[in-house]
Specification:
The complex is a heterodimer. Chain A is built from five helices and two strands; from the N terminus they run H-H-H-H-E-E-H. By secondary structure, chain A is mainly alpha-helical. Chain A starts with 5 loop residues before the first helix and ends with a helix. The radius of gyration of chain B is 22 Å and the shape is globular. The two termini of chain B are 21 Å apart. The chains are: A mainly alpha, B mainly alpha. Chain A: Keywords: Cell membrane, Membrane, Transmembrane, Transmembrane helix.
């Protein structure tokens, strides 16, 4: 591959940062506004895919030593745990709760257990999407 | 809030399945863990079944959102009976896999996928929400795609393409039907749907929507639209075939029973007549298929088709006795089909061919295998005191009471065809001149027959223990025939 991809590489360095920021923003805006774990996860995954496209997969794997198959498993486990935990506290499966806390920098902030569930979803989506892309690209 | 146990038949396999992903390289440990998980699931379902008898229908509102606003799991006897049976069958099939499957298969996520499959199956049985049913169907189907292609042979890939495309089309139809229904009725909670459809009356528009559902579920169940079934059920490794043959079509059948006895039961002269015609054609097609092949696995696959037709005859007649017969027959068929596929798989491993012509006189070398097959055959043909008998009797007598003589004749004839198709296998493969001498015969691996013998035991037990099962099955049929019981149990609080 002797394609001159300096432009692609340079641009993607900047763009990946923007995409990741946007993905995390979407993730946190989740349960009251459009967004959430699934969409945030997809956007973050697209940043990873862009990295894999513009650099070769070995370079990226070196910088990001993550087994994406296990990442998706971890995501499901996390989401399930947030569903199971209330069962031991006398609530129904998948019950969620939230509260307002005064945090140092953010001030009064809403913290909800649903975020844990959404984080699980996000991890699963990232794992699955990147895994699919990698499996396709590995094939001869 | 003790109802949380209701989610375990779906949750437990998922969690264990995910954990197994991290143990990928340890084939045997995976097998044992998944076996234990399925045994636990079966135990939990048994407890649930007992609980439903004492407390009536129980439900679990996820996250505390009450119906019709949240999604929920509902356990009535029908659903829990099926959950129990499928968990037991899965455990037995897993033990067969533990004994016989190659190591290669075991480390390629076979066990996690089976667990996800059973999670989808159990979820489909338990859910009380039509859209959730779609989701559980997808969980099940995605796992079945993986299982179907695992092993990577050319034939598997060819059949998988057909299977995947037909199922994607039918899933799309399912979504469209859901959208129509939601547009027309404004809810997807099954009990709420049933309530509202009863209130506004089943207008022609709703009947049309119900026909779309009929098509979708028929594709999944292999009712008339079974053209994809024989190929895809006969190509994967035998454990997978056994699981598919025992479980997957039953989920479609369950959905048909649920939807057409709970929601769309006001226009039986249209919907149930169509189901009757489809069942009749399925019986004919399946019977002809079962006797016209020389490949053992195709014969077994067509036997699955015949059973689907037979069970749906019960729904078409729709009297309490007929429904009861169908429930007995579904349970019997799960056991008997798993047994049939496992036995045939063992025969194929032993003789190295799946063609009838390549086998002869197996009886002399493997008498236990032969007699197990004999019992499976009698059970499938419906000979007392085995498990197939009671279902056939109830459905036939209900057909007589109802005056559905065509369905009666076809279903009885189909039993003869089933008997003939398997008798042919028995005669060609087990009787006759022994091709291989005692010295040359492949040794039957130790323990391979244990899962089959357990299933043989089950089919005898179900046949003899009908008396013990009857309160559960009667209760299940009662709930199906009187939708108000189900509706009240789910919507009780807000009415």
């Amino acid at each position: 591959m002797n394609i001159n991809d300096v432009i692609l590489k340079t641009v993607s360095k900047a763009v990946v940062l923007i995409i990741l920021t946007f993905g995390i923003y979407l993730f946190f805006s989740g349960h009251n506004q459009p967004g959430g774990g699934f969409i945030g996860g997809l956007v973050i995954a697209s940043a990873f895919v862009l990295m894999f496209l513009s650099y070769d997969s070995e370079t990226v794997s070196e910088a990001l030593p993550i087994d994406f198959k296990k990442l998706s498993g971890l995501g499901v486990l996390l989401a399930m745990t947030s569903g199971i935990a209330p069962m031991f506290l006398g609530g129904a499966f998948l019950s969620q709760s939230f509260g307002y806390f005064d945090l140092p920098i953010f001030g009064k902030t809403e913290l909800a257990t649903v975020t844990i569930f959404e984080a699980g979803i996000a991890l699963t989506v990232i794992g699955v999407v990147v895994n699919i892309i990698l499996s396709i690209s590995e094939d001869e | 809030m003790m109802n949380n146990i209701l989610v375990l038949p779906m949750l437990l396999p998922i969690i264990v399945g995910v954990l197994l992903i991290f143990l990928r390289t340890y084939g045997r440990i995976q097998a044992w863990i998944s076996l234990i998980a399925m045994a636990l699931t079966a135990g939990i379902s048994g407890y649930l079944l007992q609980k439903v008898q004492t407390d009536g229908i129980i439900r679990l509102d996820f996250g505390g959102w009450e119906p019709p606003f949240g999604i929920l799991f509902v356990a009535d006897s029908f659903a829990v009976l099926l959950v129990l049976t499928s968990s037991i069958i899965t455990a037995i099939c897993l033990s067969y896999a533990l004994i016989s499957t190659s190591k290669e298969l075991q480390t390629m996520y076979f066990y996690p996928t089976v667990l996800f499959l059973i999670a989808g199956v159990n979820g489909s049985f338990l859910t009380g929400d039509l859209f959730n049913l779609f989701v559980c169907f997808e969980v099940m189907l995605l796992s079945s795609y993986v299982l179907l292609t695992l092993g990577n042979s050319k034939r598997q890939l060819r059949e998988a393409i057909k299977y995947v495309s037909i199922n994607i089309v039918s899933s799309w139809f399912f979504l469209v039907a859901l959208a129509f229904l939601y547009g027309a009725i404004g809810t997807l909670n099954m009990a709420h749907l049933a309530d509202r459809v009863a209130e506004v009356g089943q207008t022609p528009l709703l009947t049309t929507i119900s026909i779309v559902f009929l098509i979708v579920f028929s594709l999944k169940a292999g009712l008339l639209l079974y053209f994809w079934l024989p190929g895809s059920y006969s190509s994967p490794p035998i454990v997978t075939s056994a699981l598919f043959g025992a479980l997957l079509t039953k989920v479609g059948i369950y959905a048909l029973f649920r939807v057409f006895s709970l929601i769309f039961h006001h226009q039986p002269e249209i919907t149930h007549t169509v189901i009757g015609i489809m069942a009749a054609l399925t019986l004919i097609g399946g019977s002809l298929g079962a006797i016209s092949f020389n490949d053992l696995r195709s014969i077994a696959a067509y036997n699955v088709v015949v059973a689907v037709g037979f069970i749906l005859v019960g729904l078409a007649i729709a009297t309490p006795a007929a429904i009861e017969g169908s429930i007995y027959y579904i349970i019997h068929d799960m056991v008997a089909k798993a047994l049939l596929f496992l036995l045939i798989g063992t025969m194929i491993t032993l003789s190295g061919t799946s063609k009838m012509a390549g086998m002869s006189g197996l009886m002399k070398n493997y008498p236990l295998l032969g007699w197990s097959f004999f019992i499976a055959m009698l059970s499938l043909a419906g000979i007392p005191p085995l498990s197939g008998f009671i279902g056939k009797v109830l459905i036939s007598s209900a057909a007589i009471d109802n005056g559905s003589y065509v369905l009666l004749a076809l279903s009885l004839l189909s039993s003869i065809f089933v008997l003939y198709s398997l008798l042919r296998v028995f005669k060609n493969c087990f009787w006759g001149e022994t091709i291989v001498s005692k010295e040359e015969q492949l040794p039957l691996r130790r323990g391979v027959l244990i899962p089959c013998l357990v299933l043989v035991g089950l089919t005898i037990l179900i046949g003899l223990g009908t008396e013990i099962m009857s309160p559960y099955v009667t209760d299940a049929a009662e709930t199906l025939v009187n939708p108000s019981v189900y509706i009240d149990a789910v919507l009780g609080k807000i009415q």
